[in-house]
Amino acid sequence: MISTSWTKKRDEKKRRINAVKHLVENIFIKRENIVETLQVLIQPGDRVVLEGNNQKQASFLAEALLQLDPAKVNKLHMVMSSISLPEHLDIFEKGIAEKVDFAYAGPQSLRIAQMLEDGILKIGEIHTYLELYGRLFIDLIPNVVLIAADKADRLGNLYTGPNTEETPTIAEAAAFKDGIVIVQVNEILDELPRVDIPSSWVDFIVEADQPYQLEALFTRDPQNITELHILIAMLTIRGVYEKHHVKSLNHGVGFNTAAIELLLPTYAQSLGLKGKIATNWALNPHPTLIPAIESGWVDTLYAFGGEVGMEQYVAARPDIFFTGRDGSLRSNRALAQVAGQYAIDMFIGSTLQIDKNGNSSTVVSGRLAGFGGAPNMGHDPRGRRHSSKAWLDMITSKDPLAHGRKLVVQTVETFQNGNTPVFVETLDAVEVAKQSNLATAPVMIYGDDVTHVVTEEGVAYIYKAEGQEERRQALAAIAGVTSVGRTADPKTTQALRERGVVAYPEDIGVHRTEAKRSLLAAKNIKDLVEWSGGLYNPPAKFKNW
Amino acid sequence: MKTAFLFPGQGSQKPDILSSLLAQESDAGYLSYLTEQILQKSISEIDSSEGLFSTVNVQVNLLIAGVLSAKQLLARGVTADFVAGHSVGAFAAAVVSEVITFQEAVSLVHHRAQLMEKAFPAHYGMAALLGFTENRLILYLKDHNSRHTPVYLSNINASDQLVVTGKIDSIAILINELEKAGIRKTKLLDVKVPSHCELMTSVSQSLKQQIEQLTLKSPVIPFASNVTGRLLKTADAIGKDLWQSISSPVKWYDATTLIYELGTRIFIEMEPSGVLAKLATEAFPEAEILNMDSKQIDQITVLWNNYQHK
């Protein structure tokens, strides 16, 4: 009888670890041995997760990976939530890796499209964050993961601090399925402020020569908020937040939503909305939310990741933020995405293109930017069973089985940068799918998930529209002088306004002339620092005083 | 932080640029001699405002200005990780990347410009269009070209800044159609040659023969392509780009976006600077943009060194 081994992956892991004994001290890889060590721990054809998300990068390990000898290590299948650094794609040019599954490639979106076209890499699928995390436990289980932490202790426990983000999720997918977990740390200490990942999940640690790369991605300078943004923000506050009693929410990163954050303690306060809207958030620690927090608007905030400069402020406000025993923020991208998908009343964001049916996309021709997390939050999760006032408010039928909906709101100016129409006949995504041979067009948010679209012209309550034709008419009514907007029929628009499917500013008590920058609770970054009592410490590039 | 040198093309010319660049140059005599030997014209002639009415003079002028600007920067230790030249600017980029010699470039550009001038003497031109993306314009172009003399997309300078080329009367009709469709701005350019479209295929073929006779060297600095928007790292690929470019659209937006994605955060536009620097400022708000000016080379060098430590 042939005996079956049930420990093949475990045995292979042991074999590789034994083979690097001479290059490591216990679990610590000497920096100068990193390339030689990786060359043994990673084998041809391995599935490898290289930690890179839109803020934090395992940059030292990315560079080390690039130095591997492609004659020894090749055909790697990379799994990366975000392709951000040039090195992330250089490994394909060098012949070390050949296939990639990813969620977001914004900072490398042209190059990845070119490399796909030139046959230098193969793309598995383009995901949302949650799908990619999910597949790490199903059919993209890694052989090796390369991750980043702030600090390690001598036992191998890790401190990931405010930027914990997706590190524990990636580690878990390898640690409990006989994958190898390799961590770069900024420093090694005797005692950690707190343990975010226990040592039993970790196989190897290397102290990097430089701290991991970290970008401030969620900082919007109020100086760049225009009166058009403010008008749209006013319309949204009255026409969506107030009307539907939106209490729990996520905001995108654009200036439209930054304007809303800065109007809460001023405009919304004057409407008596404090405590009635926008109390519980799934959000990165946006600096533009500081005035609302300081004015007592915000009850709680759960974060996907940290934000450079917000560390001290967050640590001083534990009633609002999730913090560890050490006092600093604990973020978790996977859990925050789940919260943003299932536990909030509303997702609101912006986009580059909306077609006549309300489908939206940030994809432009010749670029493969992927999705990130917006589609996770920007859709109605039909598995939801708990109710809230806003959710129930979306019911439009008298069916006894009718259920509520998440509010999915798009706020856009009808012309991007004053030049390019946002409302279009057909999304560029359709052409990109053809060019890049994708199975489906890369739509960011599907029209049938969108409940509201807000422009400087007004609000379209498209969840109320009856049938596709009426939906199109509602969108056209707020699409300004774009080609879509010019298909609007004045009589139909009037009827839609009467039925509350479309609202113009005067219909919801918004005066265009009041949309002034003086309404902003903070007009620049310096004001935000002042609101924070000096606790917010913006990165140098935002300090222009 | 990586640095790219950008070399401007036709439209950027300004009188007296060469005289001020040559004033700062230790090899001035030698370079003028070389140029004058090939062209049989004096430097002052191609540097004057009257001289710049001629396409030939303009193109040679831009080549020399580009090479001299880069030479002065390099001499002060300001180095480039990438070079990219817009249209004729690509020849200066190829010299700086050491694929062709200065002398070879002067002959090539002289030849190229003469052929261009002769190919279409009248009734042709170019127009800049602001506010439409490439995808959107192509729909209108297809429709227009099914009914009129073809107009070609010849430059993609930014996502919403395009240039078309063809017969002037046909361009005028297209502009009228685009204005009806709500385009933000259109402008007929002061260029009489339908560059960067298939009407220039014969010029490409002639340049190809000339380039194939040269011994091209491997680039010492990677070169961003006009034709493909790719990064080119071999002599053959760059040689091909130089002859193909005149009959293919300039993918400037792709070429510069690619080097930005590859880590460029400092763009320096060679003299006469302004046009490409403005495009880079709009496309890459996070990057540092410098305008080369031989009279302020010391300040530029200091700024560049400071950016290295940011």
From TrEMBL, chain B:
Residues annotated as domain Malonyl-CoA:ACP transacylase (MAT): 6-292
| Catalyses which reaction(s) | holo-[ACP] + malonyl-CoA = malonyl-[ACP] + CoA
SUPFAM superfamilies per the UniProt record, alphabetical: FabD/lysophospholipase-like, Probable ACP-binding domain of malonyl-CoA ACP transacylase
Name the InterPro entries for this protein.
Ac_transferase_dom_sf, Acyl_transferase_dom, Acyl_Trfase/lysoPLipase, Mal-CoA-ACP_Trans/PKS_FabD, Malonyl_CoA-ACP_transAc, Malonyl_transacylase_ACP-bd
The enzyme class is transferase
Q: Any idea which UniProt keywords this protein has?
A: Acyltransferase, Transferase
Q: One Pfam family of this protein, by short name?
A: Acyl_transf_1
E.C. numbers: 2.3.1.39
Signal peptide region: none
Spell out the family assignment given in the record's similarity comment: Belongs to the fabD family.
Q: What is this protein called?
A: Malonyl CoA-acyl carrier protein transacylase
Provide the species name.
Answer: Chryseobacterium rhizosphaerae
Upper lineage is: Bacteria, Pseudomonadati, Bacteroidota, Flavobacteriia, Flavobacteriales
